[in-house]
Amino acid sequence: MPDPALVALLAFFAVGTYFQTVTGFGLGMIVMGAASGFDLAPLPVVAAVVSLMALTNSAVALPGKLHLIDWPAARAVLVGVVPAIVLGVLLLDYLSTVAATALKLLLGVVIAYSGIVFALRPTQLPTRSSNRSFLASGFLAGLFGGLFGMAGPPVIFHFYRQPMALPAVRSMLLLVFTFTSASRTAFVGLQGGLTAEVWWLTAFAFVLVTAAAFAGRRYPPPLPPTVMRRIAFTVLILIGLSLIGSALAALQ
Description:
Strand content: under 5%
Shape: globular
Structural class: mainly alpha
Largest sheet: none
């Protein structure tokens, strides 16, 4: 009989992918939140799988769009990503061993914050921000990516505030996600973290993610995109608040 926890985790991969296909985000946060909230699998394992899935998605979507990228800004972001990725992975290993409740609390805060940030419509700045600000957003993205395999919130909010065309913003985000996923996967691999469990889970998840992505493109829900995004924001905020509540209860 299949392991119920594995079945549930794979189901959340499918749900997260469907959400991401129709809204543009959500896979990593939904999967990581569910894995932590329901104790479905060790967070380092799930984060490694999320990074591999994100790397696969970015590798398919990025070719042909490199000419749209603001390379000085992109280089500043990527310089900030590298040390933060290492710090995030090491912090995840430490917290998952000695402070699991604190890790759950931190994950809940990050997911709730992400839902709130995505719900806000950032005001576009009149002029492009300095490279130092891109460096700072890259560091935060790397820290989030190293900890939880989801680098999106800091750079998404920062990039969408820039006076850039949307195709350029999306291309830069794809580049950052590719780089953070590749860096995280390489570092975890050097640590010996790409175990057989990670590869098997990735293989199973890949099949479901592919099917869910096809379903999202072919059979989107009969709702306006704005409504779907509001549903996604609400789901993320509820997941985050649930994790925060359970973690605080365990600390008392």
